[in-house]
Amino acid sequence: MNNEYLKLVYEALSKKIKLTESNSKALRKLYEEVAEELIKQAEKSKGFNKAWLNDYSKVVKNRLKELENNMYFLNKEAIDASSYIAAAIQSNFFQHIGEKFKLDIPKDILRAIYTVPEDVVLKLLSGGLYKDGKGLNERIWSLINKMDKDINYILAKGIVGNKPYLDIIKDLEKYVEPNAKKPWDWRIVYPGVNKQVDYNAQRLLRTALNHAFYLSSMESNKRNPYVESIHWELSSQHYERQVKRFGRDECDDYTEQNRYALGQGNFPKDEVPIPHPQCLCTQYGVVSKSMEDIGKELGDWLAGGSNKMLDEWYASIV
């Protein structure tokens, strides 16, 4: 395996991890702002009744609509950023070769390799990647709709049960505040209500980031003629997060298979499985040629030498 290429892969993965962490914090902050505003509005009342609940429900819907819009733009920007981080692996690879061997690689080649195809992002936004066909908008709407129903259920149950309004506010705060600890009987008192308000939103964000990176990586790998196959590498956390708690999953099978006779854990460029939600495994291109061999081959070709493979590659990307 070409270690210089692998270094570029791990640098990109490090950037993706930082992107995930920063966006996760931004998402948590969006929920915290909603929680603060909804609690503040509830505390203005001196007591709750059905009439108040109807008015408050309108406040909730308006604020959750803002949250829905903010979540969409946060996810969209994260998807774009993750896509470009993945695409940059291949362009950085060729730039590195050009600098190392003083090759004047045409800009149209670098541009074609780095460009993220529109259909990569559209697949995620429209739901074309998934069996249920649900796009980003629809998934976020489902999360917001569930939150709206949960809030109304907590309030309505408290009012019908003649619960002191201060206790109702405390329960509402426990629900809407992402960091709030729930009592042991939360699921008994409020069956079906989410225990952590932003859990599924965080899950959606991480999955969108991972799938954007995966799709862009797979497309850009196809544009690198020196990538022979795609390797599936288990996350360093795979045993603790998955195997130890729940047993083996499909990722173990992927990393052990050799049904394509390309080496253990390797897949053809167009046969790589889609990572499951929240998958932390890595899929990267396998480059066996050394930088020296690649640099010499590219140098000869750029100087006018005959190379059918590179001629066909150039014609396919520009």
TrEMBL record:
Keywords: Coiled coil. The keyword Coiled coil applies. Residues 17-77 form a coiled coil. It comes from the Bacteria. This is Phage Mu protein F like protein. The lineage of its organism: Bacteria, Bacillati, Bacillota, Clostridia, Eubacteriales.
